[in-house]
Amino acid sequence: MGRRPVELARGIRSILDQEGVDVDVVCVGNGWDPATAGPALPAEVRTLHLPENLGIPAGRNRGVPEVAGDVLFFLDDDAYLPSPAFLADGCRMLASRPDLGLVQPRVVDPTGLASPRRWIPRIRKGDPAHSSPVFSCWEGAVLMPRRAFEASGGWADPFFYAHEGIELAWRVWDAGYRAWYAGDLEAAHPVIDPARHAYYYRLNARNRVWLARRNLPAILVPCYVGSWTAIQVLRWVRQPAALRAWFAGWRAGWREDAGERRPMRWRTVWRMTLAGRPPVV
Q1: Start and end of every Glycosyltransferase 2-like domain (predicted)?
Q2: Which residues are bridge partners to 72 per DSSP?
């Protein structure tokens, strides 16, 4: 959104400095024009101006047709790559593991603050350096084969913010691939409270409902929504204002149009269950 020019420049430079790969970079301006606003970007970086802020997932989707290459990498404007070998290492991983359709790296705070547990997208967090299959992803740094991105349908445009990484991971699994947490790859991102956004509680709840409505077999929809409703009530029972905002989003999730419905196959439900997390929680 053009509000972090210093961080944006650092993230772009970390991409341009990658070794052993050819990079094709586009900076998507979500509601602003990167070509005319703020400090000039490096000459080798193209820009895409979206006159309206379409939200995070839609912005990422709009950037994909603007770049070439068999591997896509999405990087938020406040993240960067500490190692110039990151993309080469990630591409080697994808080449040696054709079953992988999405890779999320381990995320660290560059100032040394403890990383939030939410950055490890699995129930049993364990050692952050341990790699494993996952069923969601932290969206700030994501590596994907283009074929897997296209097969999965990309990011969830209507979500605007929150939980688009869960849907993308689910759809990657449903396309026959696996989503992977790579503890041996590292991206940097500052520790920031996600609740800083006024719409945090509402969109978290709405998009939980939309996840189920868009992606699950009908019989599993109430199971998934019910389990997360119970979790949130227990989590915020002493924060009535947060619960009120959350339930306002919960109601909106049922009333508002969720967009395209692509229920996953029962085969995918079984694969996810065998891999450690059935899509009911």
Answers
A1: 7-108
A2: 144
pLDDT at position 150: 98
| DSSP string across 140-201 | TEEEEEHHHHHHHT-S-GGG-SSSHHHHHHHHHHHTT-EEEEEEEEEEE-----GGGSTTHH
Taking CB atoms within 8 Å and a gap of at least 24, the contacts of 238-241 are none
The CATH code of the domain at 5-188 is: 3.90.550.10
Domain spans in the chain, listed from the N-terminal domain onward: 5-188, 198-263
Of residues 87, 100, 98, the one with CA closest to residue 131: 100
Angle between helices 164-174 and 266-274 (to 10 degrees): 100
Q: Which residue, 127, 115, 122, 206, is CA-closest to 160?
A: 206
SS3 32: coil
Q: What is the reported pLDDT for 194?
A: 73
Given this model, what pLDDT does residue 132 score?
97
pLDDT at 198: 65
- Name which of 228, 206, 196 is nearest 159 in CA terms: 206
Which residues of the chain carry a pLDDT beneath 50? none
The strand pair at 141-145 and 71-75 is best described as antiparallel
Tokens of 177: 């691939």
pLDDT in tens, 220-268: 999 999 999 999 999 999 999 999 999 999 999 999 999 999 999 999 9
- In the chain, the amino acid numbered 169 is A
- Integer CA distances (angstroms), 79 to 138, 167, 224, in order: 12, 22, 31
Q: With contact defined as beta carbons under 8 Å apart, do 125 and 140 qualify? A: no
CB of 60 closer than 8 Å to CB of 53 = no
Element (H, E) at 255: helix 240-255
